[in-house]
Amino acid sequence: MTYSEHTKALKQIGKKPAKIKRFKKYNVPKDRKEGISTKRCRRCGRIRGHIQKYGLNLCRQCFREIASKIGFKKYS
């Protein structure tokens, strides 16, 4: 369940505190302290394909777009 789906469902429940409490207990995503979802692209927010080397913190797609501006060269 993604974040947006979770908030949409909360709006549909309405103002019933017992149902909201039970829904949050089982369906709200946890705050992550470690693992793949803590490292996000600082440009677009994507989680996968993350390049952390040299303190870049970019996904591979964003890196390809701005690599020449940063000073990286393609060798082929």
Structure description:
The structure is a single chain. This protein has 76 residues and is mainly α. The chain folds into two domains: 1-29, no CATH class; 39-70, Ribosomal Protein S14/S29 (30s Ribosomal Protein S14, Chain N). It has helices spanning 3-13, 17-27, 60-70, and strands spanning 50-51, 58-59. Strands 1-2 form a two-stranded antiparallel sheet. The longest helix has 11 residues, at 3-13. The protein is elongated and about 60 Å long.
Summarize the helices and strands and which ones pair or pack.
Blueprint: H1 3-13, H2 17-27, E1 50-51, E2 58-59, H3 60-70
Quickly describe the structure.
It is built from 3 helices and 2 strands, in the order ααββα. It has 76 residues and is mainly α.
